[in-house]
Predict the structure of Transcription factor 25.
Amino acid sequence: MPLLAERKFRRTAARRRQSSGSRQRAVSAQARRSFSFRLFLLPVSGRQRPLGPMSRRALRRLRGEQRGQEPLGPGALQFALHDDDDAEEEGPKRGTGGRRPRGAGKEGVCVNNRFELINIEDLEEGPVLNGERPECLLTGNRRRSQSGGADAKKAGEVAGKAAPPEQSNISGKLRKKKKKQKNKKNTAGEILENGLEDIDRILERIEDGGGLSRPGPPPLSSKKHILYVEHRHLNPDTELKRYFGARAVLGEQRPRQRQRVYPKCTWLTTPKSTWPRYTKPGLSMRLLESKRGLSFFAFEHSEEYQQTQHKFLAAVESMEPNNIVVLLQTSPYHVDSLLQLSDACRFQEDQEMARDLVERALYSMECAFHPLFSLTSGTCRLDYRRPENRSFYLALYKQMSFLEKRGCPRTALEFCKLILSLEPDEDPLCMLLLIDHLALRARNYDYLIRLFQEWEAHRNLSQLPNFAFSVPLAYFLLSQQADLPEQELSSAREQASLLIRQALTMFPGALLPLLEYCSVRPDAAVATHSFFGPDAEISQPPALSQLVSLYLGRSHFLWKEPATMSWLEENVREVLRAVDSGDPAVEACESRRKVLYQRAPRNIHRHVVLSEVKEAVAALPPDVTTQSVMGFDPLPPLDTIYSYVRPERLSPVSHGNTIALFFRSLLPNYTMEGERLEAGGAGGLNHNQGLNRLMLAVRDMMANFHFHDVEAAREDNPEGDGEWD
């Protein structure tokens, strides 16, 4: 007996080792299979069922054994059918023979007939992932169920005749369970279809947002903000591709893009491989406040950047461009130095280098943007009174000027909208004097008309000569397009005629200079009439003459078309008839001209200086032309907000030498000893006091000069004294 017991113990241990090894291999295979399903199935809603240990049924299936091959014991035909197969392995301890006691664990359904298990799908189906079964397993089970459907029906009928009443209850429960499984499959299929539809919608939204399906500009009916900026129109290559094709524009740039060393994506400019390696120069941006849906930002200078700024001001005072070049060798991304050197290159006719320096300045400032600062929203503000912000305004303006000269008016219009959106109420660079010109050059007539309609009520755009003449011109050019309905064409023509008559009545002094620019000889009835004659140009206020000169010097070539001149001639004759008939609107416009155009504000003078239109610059008042205008900060605001103060020179000023005092007063940072503004006065230089000191020094110097009468001396001693003085 001890020998038999030992042999039985060894066989039991070997069987247990074999079953445990097979179970581990089955678990690893099942895990690999479930992982592959996770890779190829789409994610759908539902909770994923954790993968538990392998059941005995799956283990037998992997080993190739069948259920009826094991030896039958007492009660072997009755076994429990549980809802969860994993509960077989996770219960209490097993008894002898590896079976679970009947009373342990979850209650199951007792089945006496094995053929009842054929149509139970959960015994033949594979693993469940995310609340549903894979499609490949479902199709396989359908095929097996169809092939064995006849045998199952016969076995079910035989079992139904011989089964007791308890078995009918069991079969009813099985049918209910089968219906539940089918409902689960249907819901899983619906979830899968809904998930696919959601993915399709998301892809469509991404394509729409990326502009893949709509290459053209968005329609005006979308009612975007009037100053909304589109990223794709900030790139001049987009406009050049439309003119010359992508192959001509990007033919030389494609090899260079592979060697790009600038990982940061920028919108305002494209970094070049010839630029110095970018390092943070100490320029940053911070959010000041947010109110009424607007966000106010400001650029900031670190201590290192402030020291560089002081060196730059000293280099400007030296009047030597080479000093700025030396400064850029140590600080290659100092913005003001780049802008000042760009002006020097432009004066020397080196346009390519000037544009490259401006683009580098824009890249430096864009790298310093705040994460919340948006170029396109139209809700971000930069106060021009802060000197740190002015560099961004001037860099954008110079880039816009280069783009216009390059033949990219659509891109220049987008930059113009961007500058105007930074501070639309104050408009420090007075972009309203330029935006109409760019819109007409870009043939974006709808935008100009919409801007006039939305802003006329609160900005009185019709009181500016450029808008008074450009808007009717836009209506007229719009009426010349053949792709519009006849009703819209006639309506645009009528509106154009109405507005141009109002403009000629309000600004009669602009007609003869416009005809002269266009090389058109006016009719004798027009040239000799008192309303449009030379007296009209002479009698208008100086501020109005400056605005008219600015508009005509910039946009006169837009009126040279023969159709435009014929339309203008018709409306000029209509205005003359109204004047001769004594229309009261003529006297109202004359009184309005005398009241509204007394003096031009400072932002208009700043715009004229930046525009470099000769006719407008010549019309500047003397108090502006006598000031020293710096390219990096032309005509700064009188209420400047300084964040830091430049240290003053400690060398005393010589009061005895008038000539030395005069030359020292020419420097921008000239101050008398002890003359400093109080802390509340912005900590800068008072330009009016500096100008007064300059005038006093000149008067003192001229008063101390004494000229000797050389002719009288020669008459007294015609032969000379024979000695050298």
Notes: The mean pLDDT is 74. Strands lie at 79-81, 109-111, 283-291, 294-301, 380-382.
